């Protein structure tokens, strides 16, 4: 059986695999929901990187993020340094990510996109993933605006030369994934936010990179110790880890129109 290819390229690319930028709310989000795709693209020779909206660069969480990205081959952390909405000490003296003025937040991310110049951007879905965390939802909204604005030269002119990513993928979970995740998240009392299976654009088998993905998740030792999602993963036997982490799901959201011009609005 041939090995699976990286996340589908949005357009013909001069390199074997398209460059990919992940944008996530917290350290550990990148490993949990997109660690396989990040490792997969890096192993195929693509440029990969991650922007993290919250936590200061001098915190233990930042050091853990750096280790996780090293494992995944995703470069050095690109941290916006805002406060986690539920952990004020995550960035002393900085506003909560959800409280940052929208125009300012979008401008910060536009600068990152224009600096890295990715072909594909990956972020949280509209629900904010399984948990629906408010920082995840806010990151989704900011990323949608920033991906569009990054290609427009008159928006944020001081944030670098315009660059238009060709595709945006939203990391998500289909309803069918409840069978895998439900038994593990049910004891936490958290509601799971999933989407209809027919909304899924890309179902990616990342089992060849499962060892890297798991190591990256477990690199977030603070979250392991407090029993957050990495802690749940740490406590599982290998077969259960593969069942939970071996597949990643995405919804493609094209930031620019691909249909031919026409003279009226069409569905």
Tell me the number of helical segments per DSSP (H or I, 4 or more residues long).
9
Strand order in the largest sheet: 3-2-1-4-5-7-6
Pairing-aware structural class of the strands and helices? alpha/beta
The N- and C-terminal alpha carbons lie at a distance of 39 Å
- As residue ranges, the low-confidence spans are 1-5
Content of β-strand: 5-15%
Biggest sheet features? 7 strands, mixed
Radius of gyration: 18 Å
What is the general shape?
A: globular
Percent of residues in helical segments? 25-40%
Order of H and E elements = EHEHEHEHEHEHHHHE
Q: What's the oligomerization state?
A: single chain
- How many DSSP-defined strands? 7
Average per-residue pLDDT, rounded, comes to 90
Architecture overview:
This protein is an alpha/beta fold and 267 residues long. Helix content is 36%, strand content 15%. Strands 3-2-1-4-5-7-6 form a 7-stranded mixed beta sheet, sandwiched between helices. The radius of gyration is 18 Å and the shape is globular. The protein starts with 19 loop residues before the first strand and ends in a 14-residue tail after the last strand. 45% of the residues are buried.
């Amino acid at each position: 059986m041939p090995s699976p290819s990286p996340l589908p390229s949005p357009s013909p690319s001069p390199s074997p695999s398209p460059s990919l930028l992940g944008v996530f709310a917290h350290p550990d989000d990148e490993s949990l929901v997109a660690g396989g795709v990040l490792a997969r693209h890096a192993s195929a020779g693509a440029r990969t990187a991650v922007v993290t909206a919250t936590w200061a660069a001098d915190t233990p969480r930042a050091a853990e993020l750096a280790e996780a990205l090293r494992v995944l081959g995703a470069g050095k952390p690109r941290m916006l340094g805002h406060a986690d909405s539920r952990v004020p000490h995550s960035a002393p003296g900085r506003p909560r990510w959800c409280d940052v003025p929208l125009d300012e937040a979008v401008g910060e991310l536009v600068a990152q996109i224009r600096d890295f110049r990715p072909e594909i951007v990956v972020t949280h879905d509209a629900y904010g993933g399984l948990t629906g965390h408010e920082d995840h939802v806010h990151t989704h909204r900011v990323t949608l605006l920033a991906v569009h604005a990054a290609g427009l030269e008159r928006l944020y002119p001081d944030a670098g030369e315009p660059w238009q990513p060709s595709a945006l993928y939203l990391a998500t979970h289909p309803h069918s994934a409840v069978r895998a995740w439900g038994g593990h998240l049910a004891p936490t009392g958290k509601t799971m936010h999933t989407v209809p299976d027919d909304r899924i654009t890309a179902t990616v088998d990342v089992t060849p990179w499962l060892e890297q993905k798991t190591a990256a998740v477990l690199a977030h030792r603070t979250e392991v110790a407090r029993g957050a999602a990495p802690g749940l993963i740490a406590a599982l036997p290998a077969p259960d880890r593969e069942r939970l982490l071996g597949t990643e799901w995405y919804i493609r959201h094209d930031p620019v129109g691909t249909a031919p011009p026409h003279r009226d609005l069409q569905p």
